[in-house]
């Protein structure tokens, strides 16, 4: 699948800062274009030692990195690209600590790169799911066995953070960090991401009991009576998503603070949602570098 893009191929294509800059320039601009200044159909050449390109006729300069997550960074682009490669090649992600070791940069730099690349992986679309959609919540952090306590609105749940998963079978996943498992919190997300044309499948949790009132066709599977599959009524897609996500959280990161839980969920969902991307996940992420440019200032603190 994605492994087709081997490290050897990657190094050949994006092994130097200049190659990476050229790749971004090619996404932003055609090979030939009309110069803004002299108005001629021109070719822009790289200026050695800088991140600018210059018009072959008048010397007008363009800056492909302007506004991107790379603009103010002193880290060479080939290291950025390698970090992006690592983040898409792994199933559960890598930690800033691993990035630090593999890139040979400081922890602080690795952490910063990691956060910036995650911005590229944040959920941007809000197209509604319309087919068979499985919905479930899970708890992250805290103590105790999650599912066992799901039915008890007890004190222990307060220690845990709630992730809500909305996954279309053979389609896209939305994962949201929500404040509680209360009915209103759930319905708010469902209305945002699920079209009333969809057929919704959940477990028998009461929070979902009234979603038919909002126009959804709804089936639920009764886990308490050991019923896990009834025809196509099951929540196995979202459950296997949760087990992968938790392997990532507990295996790679050990702990994900409340503050970064949504970013991790986005990163994980991003890989899931782009798993079949033609051209490979890396190219999708690379295009995001340019796409995110317009909205970037509001996202980066
Ligand atoms: Zn010009």
From TrEMBL:
<dbReference type="Pfam" id="PF12760">
    <property type="entry name" value="Zn_ribbon_IS1595"/>
</dbReference>
<dbReference type="Pfam" id="PF12762">
    <property type="entry name" value="DDE_Tnp_IS1595"/>
</dbReference>
<protein>
    <recommendedName>
        <fullName>ISXO2-like transposase domain-containing protein</fullName>
    </recommendedName>
</protein>
<dbReference type="InterPro" id="IPR053164">
    <property type="entry name" value="IS1016-like_transposase"/>
</dbReference>
<dbReference type="InterPro" id="IPR024445">
    <property type="entry name" value="Tnp_ISXO2-like"/>
</dbReference>
<feature type="domain" description="ISXO2-like transposase">
    <location>
        <begin position="128"/>
        <end position="273"/>
    </location>
</feature>
<dbReference type="InterPro" id="IPR024442">
    <property type="entry name" value="Transposase_Zn_ribbon"/>
</dbReference>
């Amino acid at each position: 699948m994605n492994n087709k893009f081997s490290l050897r191929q990657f190094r050949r294509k994006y092994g130097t800062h200049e190659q990476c800059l050229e790749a971004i320039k090619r996404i932003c601009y055609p090979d030939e274009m009309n110069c803004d200044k002299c108005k001629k159909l021109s070719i822009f050449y790289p200026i050695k030692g800088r991140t600018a390109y210059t018009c072959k006729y008048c010397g007008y300069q363009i800056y492909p990195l302007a506004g991107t997550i790379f603009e103010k960074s002193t880290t060479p682009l080939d290291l950025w690209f390698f970090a992006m490669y690592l983040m898409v090649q792994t199933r559960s992600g890598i930690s800033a600590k691993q990035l630090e070791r593999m890139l040979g940069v400081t922890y602080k730099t690795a952490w910063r790169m990691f956060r910036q690349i995650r911005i590229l992986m944040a959920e941007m679309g809000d197209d509604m799911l319309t087919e068979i959609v499985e919905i479930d919540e899970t708890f992250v952090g805290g103590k105790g066995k999650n599912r066992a306590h799901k039915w008890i609105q007890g004190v222990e749940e307060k220690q845990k953070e709630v992730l809500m998963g909305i996954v279309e079978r053979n389609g896209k996943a939305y994962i949201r960090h929500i404040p509680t498992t209360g009915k209103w919190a759930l319905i708010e997300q469902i209305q945002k991401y699920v079209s009333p044309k969809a057929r919704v499948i959940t477990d028998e949790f009461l929070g979902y009991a009234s979603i038919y009132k909002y126009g959804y066709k709804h089936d639920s599977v009764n886990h308490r009576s050991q019923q896990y599959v009834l025809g196509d009524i099951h929540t196995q897609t979202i459950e296997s998503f949760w087990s992968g996500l938790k392997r990532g959280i507990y295996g790679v990161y050990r702990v994900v603070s409340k503050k970064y839980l949504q970013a991790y969920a986005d990163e994980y969902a991003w890989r899931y949602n782009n798993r079949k991307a033609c051209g490979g996940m890396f190219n999708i992420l690379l295009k995001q570098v340019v796409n995110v440019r317009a909205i970037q200032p509001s996202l980066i603190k």
